[in-house]
Design a protein that fits this description.
three-stranded mixed beta sheet, DBR1_C, about 290 residues, Metallo-depent_PP-like, seven-stranded mixed beta sheet
Length: about 290
């Protein structure tokens, strides 16, 4: 049975973390490192994550790739200084390593960055006519994210959606001579006259369509928790838990159910009448 994203979105919307603009938005993202409800019917995938929507598996990687911070741990803690507010949303190797452990088929993958050299699989000439300042990076093969390209090769999802470069760009990636195909699509900013919306039909079993935890991903998360890096030091794989937690996770999900708890506000709603000094209480969210 074929069901479109259009009909699925009536139930839920999923998202990855784009570039935040304030201390409060950074703290809100950090407090949901593993993902969770950002608002009613809007589910945040976390810094990296995989969930199920019906029988469709959706994965994602949040943030922007910056080589300088890539091998560091998640050392930033609120309240953020001027440097941390910029680095806290940069992609970390730890989160990419977890995604590389996924063995089951991913149907949809989302990232803020484009995978490195993705332009080689689409009409890059048309792209640089529209965005001429991309030309040199395209020709040099430096446009895009290295870890995103590694995940594209490792996961080989059916669809990959990205943002970041504020233009529409489709591409089709053939993995090996007889391997699977990934359909890539980046869209523009959500502004008048821009190409920011496209309906994609995706084959799926009949519903119900609702967000559910993914068993394999929870087992990976549990396994990697033993080496969660909270300092500037890079990930130390020597301490990685060797136990297979898939059955442990299955038992937990059978006991509590695979559906996340319903959305519940944890901080007061934004009040524009309040002075600025009272609006940034989210900065200490992780301290409490």
């Amino acid at each position: 049975m074929e069901n479109s994203i259009r009909s699925m979105r009536r139930s839920s919307t999923w998202r990855k973390w784009r570039t935040p603009r304030s201390t409060s938005s950074c703290a809100a993202g950090t407090s949901r490192y593993y993902g969770g409800w950002a608002a009613p019917n809007i589910y945040f995938l976390g810094y990296s994550g995989v969930i199920k929507f019906g029988n469709i598996r959706i994965g994602g990687l949040s943030g922007i790739y910056k080589p300088r911070e890539y091998h560091l741990g998640h050392y930033e803690m609120p309240p953020y200084d001027e440097n941390d507010i910029r680095s806290v949303y940069h992609v970390r190797e730890y989160d990419v390593m977890k995604l590389k452990e996924v063995k089951g088929q991913i149907d949809i993958f989302m990232s803020h960055d484009w995978p490195l050299r993705i332009t080689e699989y689409g009409n890059w000439e048309k792209l640089v006519r529209h965005k001429p300042f991309f030309r040199q990076e395209v020709l040099d093969g430096t446009l895009g994210s290295v870890p995103a390209a590694e995940l594209l090769k490792a996961l080989q999802p059916r669809y990959w959606f990205s943002a970041h470069l504020h233009c529409k760009f489709p591409a089709i990636i053939q993995h090996g001579e007889n391997g699977p195909v990934t359909k890539f699509l980046a869209l523009d900013k959500c502004l008048r006259g821009r190409k920011f919306l496209q309906i994609v039909d995706i084959e799926a079993d009949p519903g119900p369509y609702e967000v559910q935890y993914d068993e394999e991903w929870l087992a990976i998360t549990r396994k990697f928790n033993s080496i969660f890096p909270l300092t500037r030091k890079s990930v130390q794989l020597g301490g990685l838990d060797k136990q297979d937690y898939q059955q442990w996770v299955r038992n937990k999900l059978n006991a509590r159910g695979a559906k996340p708890f319903d959305f519940v506000p944890t901080v007061p709603s934004f009040d524009p009448s309040q002075p600025l000094s009272n609006r940034s209480h989210c900065g200490n969210l992780l301290r409490s």
